[in-house]
Amino acid sequence: MEFTAKQIAGLIQGEIEGNENQVIRDVSKIEEGRPETLTFLANPKYEHFLYSTEASVVIVNKSFVPKQDVKATLIKVEDAYRALATLLQFYESSLPKKTGIEQPSFIHETATLGDFVYVGAFAYISEKAKIGKGAQIWPGAFIGEGVTIGEGTIINSGVRIYKQCVVGKNCIIHAGAVIGADGFGFAPGPDGNYEKIPQVGNVVIEDNVEVGANTTIDRATMGSTILRNGAKIDNLVQIAHNVEIGSNTVIAAQSGIAGSTKIGKNCMFGGQTGIAGHIHIADGTKLAAQTGVGKTVKEPGSTLMGSPAMDYMKYNKAYVLFRKLPEIYQQIQELQKNR
Fold first, then answer.
1. Segment 315-339 mean pLDDT
2. 286-287 vs 292-293, strand pairing mode
3. What is the pLDDT of residue 91?
4. Which of 70, 82, 180, 313 could, after both became Cys, cross-link 162 (CB 3.0–4.6 A)?
5. Which three-class secondary structure state does DSSP give residue 328?
6. Residues 52 and 70 in one domain
7. What is the DSSP letter of 243?
8. Rounded to two decimals, what is the model's pTM?
9. What are the pLDDT digits (tens) for 76-133?
């Protein structure tokens, strides 16, 4: 990797302040900057590192005005964080892609593989599976009977995709994820025992979806559990049977969504959020970390906190009172004594 500041600015439509011929050979964090590396400043709390970093080029927002002299070359863009993402995507796409079939691996004779596919050692591809052009199946992955994997999708080591599930184009499924395990369906009997309800549906993951490590997405009882185009799911998330996740919704780690709930598009859920089953969450809903939602959210663009969830402004006001409860209780006791 070797670029000049001018070349980098051209890729991200940036304006240069400093040496446009400065050479960049690597990237670094701003607080650990090294000569001939590129870094970025998007969060104001890291600004003080800008004045001491050894990084040679720093991407900043156009609105940013330094408070001190900066020895690094600056590239000013509309959104520094997004510009960095663009550069890293460009760099990653320039790396050579693995292709070919490693041994030992198992590919059933009825499975079909597109051109330029990579299958790592100890991977297992079951009968009637379809692997699209340029897809990568990393070592130790399991692809079940009749599974479809779209073009350019990456299935990392240790992923398990059960029968009849569908994964779209340009998806990334990280290590240890399980797609299509049985939904949690049991019918209680009069004797107190539970009878298993067969889960005969599947999971459908549309294009450009990313699923984090050790996340589990259960197959539908009937029909499909669905992740719409562009959804991003973090590590250690549980998505139950017949859930539908809207397009471009992002869900952070350790969240859980109970069965048959429908999540709208462009939602953002913080870590450890919990959502009850059989409800709807409106488009654009934002849930703060550890929020618990027990009923339908009807208003698009709502921002909720707490458990049970409430409007975040109301929650903040209520929390101020909650912290004062010991003092209020003591005041009440004193008033009762003095009556």
1. 86
2. unpaired
3. 83
4. 180
5. helix
6. yes
7. -
8. 0.89
9. 999 999 999 999 888 888 888 899 999 999 999 999 999 999 999 999 999 999 999 9
Q: Which residues are catalytic?
A: 241
Order of strands across the sheet that contains 166-167: 112-113, 130-131, 148-149, 166-167, 202-205, 224-227, 244-245, 262-263, 280-281
pLDDT band at residue 149 under the 50/70/90 scheme: very high
d(CA 59, CA 61): 7
**Contacts (Cβ under 8 Å, ≥6 apart) of 276:** 258, 261, 293, 294, 295
Angle (CA) 167 168 172, round 5°: 75
Give the dihedral of Cα atoms 57, 58, 63, 67; nearest 10 deg. Answer: -90
Which residues, including other chains, have CB under 8 Å from residue 180's CB and lie 6 or more apart?
A: 144, 161, 162, 163, 164, 165, 202, 203, 217, 218, 219
Task: Work out the average pLDDT over 153-175.
Answer: 98
The 3-state DSSP class for residue 305 equals: strand
Whether 71 and 142 map to the same domain: the answer is no
> How many domains are there within the chain?
2
Amino acid at 6: K
3 state SS of 312:
helix
186 plus 280 within the same structural domain: yes
- DSSP alpha helices (H): ranges in 51-180? 80-94
Q: What are the tens digits of pLDDT across the range 284-313?
A: 999 999 999 999 999 999 999 999 999 999
Return the structure tokens found at 88: 């890293």
Q: What is the rounded distance in angstroms from the CA atom of residue 270 to the CA atom of residue 290?
A: 7
The residue out of 33, 66, 94 marking a domain boundary is 94
Please report whether residue 180 resides in a domain: yes
d(CA 32, CA 24): 15
Contact 162, 218 (CB under 8 A): no
Estimate to the nearest angstrom the gap between the alpha carbon of 329 and the chain centroid: 44
- CB contact at 8 A, 241 and 259: yes
Please give the mean pLDDT across all residues of the chain. 95
Does residue 320 sit in helix, strand or coil? helix
